[in-house]
Amino acid sequence: MHSLTTSSFFIFFSVSPVKSPSTAAEIMGAEANGSSASLNFLIYGRTGWIGGILGKLCESQGIPYTYGSGRLEDRRSLISDFDSVKPSHVFNAAGVTGRPNVDWCESHKVETIRTNVVGTLTLADVCKERGLVLINYATGCIFEYDSGHPLGSGLGFKEEDTPNFTGSFYSKTKAMVEELLKNYENVCTLRVRMPISSDLTNPRNFVTKIARYEKVVDIPNSMTILDELLPISVEMAKRNLTGVWNFTNPGVVSHNEVLEMYREFIDPSFTWKNFTLEEQAKVIVAPRSNNELDATKLKTEFPEMLSIKESLVKFVFEPNKKTEIKG
Hints:
By secondary structure, this protein is an alpha/beta fold. The chain has helices at residues 24-31, 49-61, 75-85, 103-106, 109-129, 169-181, 206-212, 226-238, 255-265, 277-281, 296-301, 308-317, and strands spanning 41-44, 65-67, 89-92, 134-139, 187-192, 215-216, 243-246, 273-274. The strands form three sheets. It has a three-stranded parallel β-sheet with strand order 2-1-3, with helices on both faces. Strands 4-5-7 form a three-stranded parallel β-sheet, with helices on both faces. Strands 6-8 form a two-stranded parallel sheet.
């Protein structure tokens, strides 16, 4: 594999029903004093990376949860799940990102639309009818560096900015569905980018991906450390936060910087080669998004959140550090 890919996931949290809410503000007011004892999560994406992590988070926090069996695009099956589980929150970690990468979406457009657009909107609409707030794990791979946000400038795209990257069908549909979801005041959209976790055996982990590539491009990007931000997203659900959020750690990190950390903490003998965007374009079907997202909004809500480089060390590389053999 030569190409560099990113993948993202959708997760939805729907909060406890309230009587005939007409706005997200009313829902927030009604749920402000809710206790964790009333939590009951319904999760879609049992076999997915994010779905698996969410289940473990529930277990560690003592939160009851059930994996849904309905398909997102099948409204009746979703309603059946809701009626059976009577959830306080609904998570959707089931989405099409493509195998082995997003190039798959270029030749499977209908399948991509069915799950990522039709399915997402159907779930949002069912939750809206039931007075439930949704937190939607979307993607930040809908932007690319431009004259107003030059590479290396530190000027990141903000939540209200209009997506400017349509190089891949995957990203194009993500931008479309995000715009449509803005009409649902009960939805909270979280823009994930290049997700990373402490599980370096997972092939979807961005660190694991680039460590296995023969060549990588070296561009600073915003990224999401799941070990730190997924627990934050659970808290966002409890706070009934809505609207669009850049769901990345503050700052950017380049591919070479990530691999230098990998060499320092994991494998001192590790080596890699770089190639240019032009060279990369010859071995991939669709262009990839490279950008910096402004995480000020999320940092203001959660001031304890670490910068991307600090988070990488604390949550990913330190826990995986190889013990040195002393002579």
